[in-house]
Specification:
By secondary structure, the protein is an alpha/beta fold. The protein is built from nine helices and eight strands. An eight-stranded parallel beta barrel has the order 1-2-3-4-5-6-7-8, surrounded by seven helices. Helix 1 runs parallel beside helix 2, helix 1 packs parallel to helix 9 and helix 7 packs across helix 8. It binds 2-phosphoglycolic acid. 2-phosphoglycolic acid binds next to strand 8.
Length: 248
């Protein structure tokens, strides 16, 4: 099989799901299918903090990267209930997701904290995966909203990956954005970010959406939620995305 044109990222966050036993079972299944990513492709999984160490051990030697769903902006200190990037790294994470819309909406995450966290994640030697996305209310000014969020993510001047996740396209009851709409938003993000910054799409990705996005969205990858809570869902999405890239 020929390698895709550019490095492709396909990953999933489990959000607040899975016990340790469920995490181990997912990893065992994913090691079999889809197994290791082909050349030029990165597979990654972002469990809750409680399972980062377990998942990192379970995926050892598979080439998969493991992430954390959030981190604090300090390396250590009196911050009850928080986890630092250094601790996430110590548990086996190499990626930290920052600024997911659920954190912005429910936990007071702001562009200012995103900027601080991106710097802290990079300081710990990890890759910040920063989520940006407009709500349905600011959809008419989507690019302006995205520009503010992206500038915060890029302010530290460190390498980041961006996940474009329109808030209205995420979660139960939502539908994925139109790939042509995504392509326009991605173009606006690429105009702000340094060349080579990976831009992923997230929001109701399933296997058909994965193919359409990779064909028409000008994307470097996909970030999947509920459709990959079952490992066979991840595998179907990955093969759908890879086939679309190879045939496109
Ligand atoms: P979803 O979540 O795939 O369940 O819509 C996507 C996300 O929050 O990244």
């Amino acid at each position: 099989m020929t390698a895709p044109r550019r490095l492709l990222w396909i990953g999933t966050s489990w959000k607040m799901n899975k016990t340790l036993a469920e995490a181990r079972a997912w990893c065992a299944a994913a090691r079999r299918d889809p197994g290791p990513a082909p050349e030029g492709v990165t597979y990654f999984v972002v469990p809750p903090f409680t399972a980062v160490d377990t998942v990192a051990r379970a995926m050892e030697g598979s080439g998969w990267r493991v992430g954390a769903q959030n981190a604090h902006w300090e390396d250590a200190g009196a911050w009850t209930g928080e986890i630092s990037p250094r601790q996430a790294a110590d548990a086996g994470a190499t990626i930290v997701e920052i600024g997911h819309s659920e954190r912005r909406r429910w936990f007071g995450e702001t562009d200012a904290t995103v900027a601080l966290k991106v710097a802290a994640v990079a300081r710990a030697g990890l890759t910040p995966l920063v989520c940006v996305g407009e709500t349905a209310q600011d959809a008419v000014e989507a690019d302006a909203t995205l520009a503010v969020q992206a500038r915060a993510a890029l302010a530290a001047g460190v390498d980041v990956a961006l996940a474009y996740e329109p808030v209205w396209a995420i979660g139960v009851g939502s539908v994925a954005a139109d790939p042509a709409y995504v392509r326009d938003r991605v173009a606006a993000l690429r105009a702000l970010a340094p060349p080579g910054t990976p831009v992923l799409y997230g929001g109701s990705v399933d296997a058909p959406v994965a193919a359409a996005m990779m064909r028409h969205g000008d994307l470097d990858g996909l970030f999947v939620g509920r459709a990959a809570l079952d490992p066979s869902g991840f595998s179907n999405i990955a093969s759908s995305a890879l086939n679309a890239v190879r045939s496109g």
